[in-house]
């Protein structure tokens, strides 16, 4: 039964991490444009893919 | 994936310069290349700090310094790159985001809680049959409580809030039994956990919330998508006005900012931005969206013009007079307001069900408690059984029955180009038995086409088309199009003079050529709509008609075959309306109908017991659209009509009207089937619960089982073969 003492907290922690990850993804706009993200991934244009100075709150359209 | 990871928002600290985020609707973004060129176009502009296109919503948000680049600069740059765009109202965007972002995190939390509690519960259920220690079981129950209490408190809020609001106004809605069931189940389980009993329902309560939240979130998402699409359609039409300042300089402002007394310039081909009076200029005004009349009206100084009409001829200067009480717009607005209030009394299917259901559930629970007390059971036991009844009856299947079907129906319609805007629109559409069409722009395409009667003089058409290319008058544009459709190349002639109200004139190689009205060309009192005349030759007439949509008569006859009463109400002239009605096979038609008469006709039909579907696109249809039992509008409609309609359909055909009705009816019968499933489920499990045979395991299984069944049934709508059922039959 001592196994439970660390198994349960471990299970809950993992679950919490999953939930926290989901909430973070949601807040930061990862689900805002599912179609567009696919296109961006195959785009060769570096201007779009890595142009950090241009990034801004525009992400959460 | 790296692009996706790249998406997170980096918030810059506001700098000394003023920056603002504007959202543009760009409906033509369809692929990765569009994203790239739209973003790159915007980023090269001065003052643009960031631009990000969203392919799903077809919008671009731009962070820009308004002093360096105005929104007009942004839209013109995009227009030049081939992407027509429009500025969206600020509040639209934030309101949508707030509503969706409220539900989705709750789904996540409820899902996390449901999964973990279920893990613990399954061990308890299987442990009870074997060798689980009672102290371990107690630990598991306390752990469940620890997860369930905050989860219910957070994830249940939308239901609790809606239930409280309903109770405050002395109504019952579906959220009342849901909230009561969830709260009682949680509270009772906590009490039983303290007493170390085994009637623990945390899993049932949290799973219930999880399923219901999924249903709501999907519903909300679909509606947000529809609303966004509708706003995008309208956004493109939200026009700017060219303001004429007192020092004769011009400035482009948003039409919403127009105030009475301002003077605006309206160029040829432009839409008039506000109601007003012409102070100078002479032109013809296309009022088809206002009155249904297809023939342009000649206007000059002193005449009034209405917002939404198109200036076909010369440039005009208009003094804005709107905001006064007696304008056409405010009159229409008053009629619509009154009509919408009467429609607001419609009670949705789910709420009608819950009016019967909620009292029944509470009476059953109370009866269980009282009867068990009477036959001498201890009060805790009687209360446990009563709560088991409430949990079992908690309308998981019932509350999912309608939203699940609606989401399936709306997404199927969306893929066909029909945007359902009103939340209860589908339910009202399912009850329709009478369809009233407007003529211009609804039954017909609203575009002028060369009449097919008689032979066409192609040489004259080529020449006339070339000259007409210089003008934006609807007949001139129709001539150009007709020439193109006949396969004639008609290069535009330069050096054409336009005489407002009469026609066009040009001289090439010493020969004078004219295109325009019969009087202008010198054709006496010719009957054709537009004439071409070259000096020394007899004039040639071209007759243009506003033809019915290609499938109009097929759609009308399909509606009639299925038992719908079909009629036409139009503001256009008698002969034009009669011609269209006959072409489409409609017997009941009325012409030269004013907006208030349209409204009265619809009300008269209502009084006779008909549930009328109004299909229309003009300002003159707006009151009728608002008063009909349900209403549809083509995407080409004026914005007021689109706002009043329950759904908007896109494309050249009338077929979406039939599809909308068929899907609405199928959705209704599926919703009723789902209610039947819920009733069967209840009639099996409620007696068990009242007799005290329901254990937490049975409750959890029954609840998930019925939810899954109802959802699966609703999803059938996605692949169902559809036909328009006869009136009075239920598929």
Automatic annotation (TrEMBL), chain A:
Task: Alphabetically list the UniProt keywords.
Answer: Membrane, Transmembrane, Transmembrane helix
Q: What is this protein's record name?
A: Cytochrome oxidase maturation protein, cbb3-type
Q: Where are the transmembrane segments?
A: 6-26
Judging by the UniProt lineage, the source's domain of life is Bacteria
Source organism per UniProt? Hyphomicrobium denitrificans (strain ATCC 51888 / DSM 1869 / NCIMB 11706 / TK 0415)
InterPro entries recorded for this chain? Cyt_oxidase_maturation_cbb3 (IPR004714)
What does the organism's lineage look like at the top? Answer: Bacteria, Pseudomonadati, Pseudomonadota, Alphaproteobacteria, Hyphomicrobiales
